[in-house]
Amino acid sequence: MANYRPVIVQSLPKLGEKVTKDTLYWKNYKAPIQIKEFGAVNKIDFSPLPPYNYAVTASSRIHIYGRYSQEPIKTFSRFKDVAYSATYRGDGKLLVAGSEEGSVRLFDIGGRAALRQFDGHTKAVHVAGFLSDKYRIVSGADDYTCKVWDVSSASEVISYSEHTDYVRCGCMSKLNADLFVTGSYDHTVKMFDTRTEKSVMTIEHGQPVECVNLFPSGGLLVTAGGRYVKVWDILRGGQLLVSLRNHHKTVTCLCLSSSGQRLLSGSLDRHVKVYSTTSYKVVHSFNYEASILSLALAPEDETLVVGMTNGILNVKHRKHEGEREPLHRRRRPAYRTFVKGKNYMPKQEDFFVSKPVKNYLKKYDKLLRSFQVSKALDAVLEGPVRKNPPEVTVAVMQELKRRGTLRNALAGRDEKQLSILLSFLIRYVTDSRFAPVLIDVAENIIDIYMPVVGQSSVIDKQFLKLQNLVEKEIDLQEELLEVLGMMDALFATMARKQTTPLNKNEAVSL
């Protein structure tokens, strides 16, 4: 029996990542510094004044970190239970925070004990912040109320009870000292004016609201809840401008860049998405090792701080121009170690002994050698992506097609196996590197499983998705052909015949 020849996996060119200005800008951070906190980090807030320290609220403590310090330079720990939403005042001298106890506390950055304590809520206070006049505080709690407090007299100014569920987020207008916005788990966002007794605007987000943020101009409002990030036009009475759904899990926090041209959102899916505020498209993405609860950007985007559910504080500092990170290379054997003896010429009296090289077959090669074509295809589809990249899977399909057993390998599959196969097709059928092979595979699958369409809702959805994907690709190809025809006609009109001038010495005969 002849020796088995392993499947040849063609080396296809990799599709390069599109490098944009945003990619270069947001990748220009050093390796992250990780700081372990005592609990989940629920709020990060930067001081508005240099040196731009930031307050981290986690568990029953508030830690103040310097920009480059890995240890807290100040700690507020006078809470009996969990602290929430520590926020700086506009001058950076005072700090306000809510607590699980239902009280709101005001701290002086230079001291340790609370300057004021505002009692009036009956449940945990998750929202606390200063109005832009710096003398009033807004708080929102799980008792469905939000209150405005006067700092000097430590008294309640006004209370609102319009929400029907927990009030978990809020933000204050920087242009108008009487306006603030709250978000609740009752799926609504309300704008209040302290000069009135009722809310002046109500917006239906559609999911429990986790975070709200006002643009610096005060005309646009961003809300986050569920998997959606929505932008509303306040000047048009709360009209919805755009609804973004780029996360796979609940969006928990929002942040604007220093210029206001980029919007950042963090989610429980461990991703931070960066959007352009002109096109509202994702221009960059960061990945983290745990679900994200809070994030903040320092002025001029010098520092990006992310707080996670596992109590880890991830801090990234921007690289300055001309600064390069030192290369820590592990010392390896010298080059001469590897080439030693390569150029040795055996003498006449020498005996040359060659060591036989043993070739180890992959799992799919072993199955193909024993003609188990269906199991060979399963081995490359269900295996880890690192060991079986798409090039390997397409190479096995090409080998099955060459043998004439592709249809046998595709037939007789249950719902789970067919779903995995269709997912692979949906992901790579429009890739120009794999399209010639995968189109034949898709046609065979449709011929085999068309009689049983309608028996599984999961498979039916995947077939419809594959159909829409192919139709969209066909439309794009037709548009490209039209553009190519236009360009051909344009180039044809631009091409002119070059007239050859007569030689001066030649005589023109009439």
TrEMBL record:
User: So which domain of life are we looking at?
Assistant: Eukaryota
Give the UniProt keywords, A-Z.
Nucleus, Repeat, rRNA processing, WD repeat
**Intracellular or extracellular location(s):** Nucleus, Nucleolus
Question: What is the first-listed, main subcellular location in coarse terms?
Answer: nucleus
Q: Which InterPro entries match?
A: U3_snoRNA-assocProt_15_C (IPR018983), WD40/YVTN_repeat-like_dom_sf (IPR015943), WD40_repeat_CS (IPR019775), WD40_repeat_dom_sf (IPR036322), WD40_rpt (IPR001680)
GO CC terms: endoplasmic reticulum; fibrillar center; small-subunit processome
GO process terms (BP): positive regulation of rRNA processing; positive regulation of transcription by RNA polymerase I; ribosomal small subunit biogenesis; rRNA processing
- Domain named U3 small nucleolar RNA-associated protein 15 C-terminal: residues: 343-490
Quote the PROSITE patterns the UniProt record gives: WD_REPEATS_1, WD_REPEATS_2, WD_REPEATS_REGION
Q: Where are the WD repeats?
A: 118-159, 244-285
What task does this protein carry out?
A: Ribosome biogenesis factor. Involved in nucleolar processing of pre-18S ribosomal RNA. Required for optimal pre-ribosomal RNA transcription by RNA polymerase I. Part of the small subunit (SSU) processome, first precursor of the small eukaryotic ribosomal subunit. During the assembly of the SSU processome in the nucleolus, many ribosome biogenesis factors, an RNA chaperone and ribosomal proteins associate with the nascent pre-rRNA and work in concert to generate RNA folding, modifications, rearrangements and cleavage as well as targeted degradation of pre-ribosomal RNA by the RNA exosome.
This chain's protein is named U3 small nucleolar RNA-associated protein 15 homolog
